[in-house]
Amino acid sequence: MVMASRQRRTRRFGIGRRLAALLLGAAMAVAGLAAAPPAVTAEAPWVSVDENGFVTFTISAEEAQSTFGDFSQIVAEGNFGPSANWAQWGLARRGANWTSVMGPLEPGLYYYQFTADDTNVVKDPTNPTSVASEPEWSTFFVPGDSADLLADVPEGSGGAVETMTYRSTVTRGERSALVWTPPGYDADRSEPYPVLYLQHGGGQGHRDWVEVGRAKQIFDNLTLRGEMEPMVVVMGDGNVADFQKELLRNIMREARHDYNISHSPSQQALAGLSMGGGQTLATLSERPGEFAYLGVFAGARNLTTIDAEKINEGTELLRLYTGNVTDGAHNRTYRLMQQLDAAGVEYQFDGVNPDRGHNWNAWQENLIDFAPRLFQKVDDDGPSPGHLPLEGEFTLPPTGTTPTPWITEDRFVTFETTTDFKDAEHVTVWGNWAPGGSWIRVEMARVGDRWRATIGPLKPGFHHYRLIVDRVSTKDTSNPTRVTSEPTWSTFFIPGEEARLLADVPEGQGGTVETMTYQSTVAGAERKAYVWTPPGYDPNRAEPYPVFYLQHGGGQNYTDWIEMGRAKQILDNHFLDGNLEPMVVVMGNGNSSNFTRELRENIVPVSLERYNISDEPSQRALAGLSMGGGQTYTVLKAFPGEFAYIGTFSAGFGSATGVDAQAINDGTTLLKIYVGDPTDFVYPSFINSLAVMDQLGIDYEYDGPTPGPHGWDAWQKNLIDFAPLLFRSE
């Protein structure tokens, strides 16, 4: 299967002197724990995090040009994707900057780099943090209750991290390890401290557990809480041909010489992630009883030798960990467990982490679970809360036979291209699965003459995506869905209770969507609108139906509320739930040089002619998103009282000049306004609009930001809230 986590090292071409200086600065930082300042500084930070977990990326156009040269796109790559896997977050050119806002991010540590045009990789020169094994990476921390064990403890209350240097008989050179000693460590204590040897993964180094794994913070917090036995932790360099020899003859020998630690196997633990987990298993197999406690974090491997009797006799704890199906160790862990079960080896399994892949977020959680189990009695040996059983391997159909996308019951989605892109160099799938429903890209990997990627778990709801092939937006032709206004987009739906109002109702129970064709006197051409009529609509009913005119945004069309906004599903479900007054909904074409005229001279009169709807202002509503919201405000200002119900989604009020606030208030039963969270780029202007409307004395309702960006995830929520408010006497 194809992993969504970062397994490749980005190619670097044409980076130039500035990056060379950055790499030199990062290399110099290896010698000490405190990161050296970046070789190049900028006028303002490229990354800032607010108190609510929203992250703003901003690079001035001048700095971007001097850093990357000529380019067409910039992305921030990091652990931003589903399951905390590696993904690409695009920056947009706005004014003098390349910028974007992401979030809200879950509390935790994030690592990232900037990449232009897929290959031109640069470390953030404004961020002094560094990762020795990944010179392009920088980090930032988002605080919060769920990440309190990853936060720094008060200064002076934590343990100490030191560099231990030793001579290796394996490499025949000088090597280093990091050593954490607990608060109050006593080199002369009569009872030696127990010791944990903690190993990194492939492509990493001995500093990673501190620089990315937050090991110091984890050990500090667990110790201060009294949840972890005071111990010494040695983080060695596992990048050697013979790890066991390096560990037993070099790392352990030097650690015993330099620190007051026990030599007894019962007071020794060994754990590692990925490659380090495999090294831990090999040590268990080949030298059973050397370490009483062993932890394997996503590092499963096939064991050639298993002496179950010796392993069980010499092992107090063997605990296995794995992430979800995007973790490359997921299937190997299942096979390892089958092998251990068959051999009669006693072990514990932490369960499948449903929300993490093969990444540092998972391994931090593994360490938090594992460390308190060492050198003390622990009653609970079951999986972590919310973790799932591992009942089998995750397998995909052979290439060329997989529906696109292929969706599992637990909401993992696999995308596969056709063979049309077998010669492409870089392919990503870009969809609305970032926090809040923003767009984010996940790399696809070549499988034969196709490309594949598995991501998830995705939240229930309506998802849209496109392929990016060598920086060109491309339609997934294997997916028959289409979006008229966005020819390269495809869609799919993941069912679930939280998305129930977006799901199709049983066939025959919903309303009807028809196309209304008319001649526009403004456009001088034939135009179309979609019209939804409720179940049981009666064109001859004595009492005309109220009518709701619902408008799209810029770059969109009358088709979008049906194809992207799930308007039919929302209206159908609300009606069947008894939450919606029977009404007719007209979705017109707002792409007009004068929308107010188009609405009043064409859309409204033709709707009155074709459908049994009221012409009373009290029975008419008007709402729109983005551009359509601005058009709605324009109509409200110019003709207050023509529509008793007004809704605007992600739009600003605009100028106060000539506005008759009293007429608006007198003629409007409901003015309800909506905006996305700070990832919605109109959020600042919207907030300014509130002050303008307050100053004018206009009555409106605003319930606070809608979680989500300037996109359909937010606008669907707006329609879900707004439609049931219409035409109700209460």
TrEMBL record:
The organism's superkingdom is given as: Bacteria
Alphabetically list the UniProt keywords.
Signal
Which InterPro entries does this UniProt record tie to the protein? AB_hydrolase_fold, Esterase-like, Ig-like_fold, Ig_E-set, Mycobacterial_A85_antigen
| Molecular function as annotated in GO | acyltransferase activity, transferring groups other than amino-acyl groups
- GO annotations under biological process? carbohydrate metabolic process
Q: What is this protein called?
A: Esterase
Task: Look up and give the organism this protein is from.
Answer: Jiangella anatolica
Task: Tell me where the signal peptide lies.
Answer: 1-34
